[in-house]
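Chapter summary example.
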Amino acid sequence: MNKVYLDNNATTMIDPEAYEAMLPFLGENFGNPNSLHSYGNATHAALGRAMDQLYAGIGAKDSDDIVVTSCATESNNWVLKGVYFDILKEQKNGKNRIIVSSVEHPAVGATAAFLESLGVEVTRLDVDHNGLVSPQALKSVIGDDVALVSVMNANNETGVIFDIKSMAEIAHAYGALFHTDAVQAVGKIPVNVAESNVDFLSFSAHKFHGPKGVGGLYIKNSRELTPLLHGGEHMGGRRSGTLNVAGIVAMGKALENSVKFLDFERSQVRRLRDKLEDAILEMSDTYVVGDRQVRVPNTILASIKGVEGEAMLWDLNQAGIAASTGSACASESLESNPIMEAIGADAELAHTALRLSLSRFTTEAEIDYAIEVIKKATNRLRAISSSFSYAPSWHKSGL
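The structure predicted for these 399 residues follows.
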């Protein structure tokens, strides 16, 4: 049976070079980098090189901080909760509100809801039918009472890219900080923190062919931010916990290689994505969320009318194809896709969501096979559907 992995927005295979780079630190070079003996010192050169790769990979300056975390979920929590303790709790300068988009990853969305339970006012920005949050929408609700705006760089389900540079400018004009969850952007499109002028940026290694269990938080100009984890002087006292040397080294190499392959992402990965997307749209009553020109090159969120997302996943899995109905962090839930609901799809349509996400390791033969299987599965599932009826104009007229 063929095996095809089209769930790269959930996690990616590790880059072979990143894998090789981490192996020495899982074996003979096992020392704690904070130890003063030779075992600890043996890790320092590789750690320094990895940190240089991270700074270069997102365009950070020497005056900035990149703090290594366990994942972007930790980074996101740290920003929102740090701003709570630094500003919101005491309502400094009258600031007691944060703004987030309605389609943030739960690592931001659930943390915002937690702050709301502590008395923080949370404003949620709606998206349009293409899944976009506009800078104008932010401008219409922001005020001097806002401490933080958090809007993702690219959506984890649709791949839609948000104009974070414009939104950061708006936030700063009102004295607010700006954070972006860039998990689905780093390694797929150019990310430059100096150009976008964000104050905080979260990323996670396993989304750009690094290992799981390691990520980072960019902090502009090394500004103060109350730590999420206390206990030691690691990472300059900003984030306690013995460093994951192997993970950091692999993350640095994975990011360096991902940046090298950005042109390949723009050309070849996009070409294969578009080929798969075109094949889906050739079928009747299908829809893909978001203009492909404003999406990261690898992502499709499609709806195939009359086909439950979970049923499609079953057929795909039986054929050796990995995909999803949305965020892996919510994959155990059989509720309708929240992004589909956010763009205005009805409940029935929201249950048909199918997310397909490629990587630079995806081949043309795999896409050809996936197209064949998806078409066969669609025909089979529609044939046994009690609700599907042929309506050839559906996918052209929108939701």
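To summarize the output: The longest strand covers residues 299-304.
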